[in-house]
Design goal:
The chain is mainly α and about 190 residues long. It is built from seven helices and no strands. Helix 4 (about 75-95) runs antiparallel to helix 6 and helix 5 packs across helix 6 (about 115-145).
Amino acid sequence: MSYLRTFLPWIIFAVLPSGQWQWAALAALAVAVAVIVQQRRAGAGFDALIIETGSAAFFAVLAVIAFADPHSAVHDYSAAVSSGTLAVIAGVSLAIGKPFTLGIAKRTTPRELWGLKPFIRTNVVITAVWTAAFAVTAIVLAVVAHAGNAHSTTATLIQVAGFVIPMVFTVRYVAAVQAKAKAGAA
């Protein structure tokens, strides 16, 4: 549920009609802000809201561009730019030693594990996979947009794959790490 909530603004932007991209950007911004407010009220720190905060900033800028010029060339590349932005946010979180998945994982992991090297290493690996998935998705979407298919079913499927593949990896990798830890403890 945490990842769904984290990426909800991006999902909303992806599924709303592209002909109304300015409203999709505004809706995504509103959802990003609502998620941040809700999570802060629930006690989440900003370390657990790295993607959400970056999302709000991105959609604020995109909404301004979209409303200022609904026919902007940015529109055709907005999906690629979105994935690229996520890659940058995730990559920066790695570079500064605060993988964005760490804050998400802390929501469901006992506090005594937070500082342990295996927990941190697991989140570095997971964040690296998400970063790579976002970067590859951005590149593929840019190629698709350049070919004139920015608003096609193919582009939508690429966007979906860009979230589903790292999500499946995350679930499986965490399960494998936990199984290994249990086997080592036995």
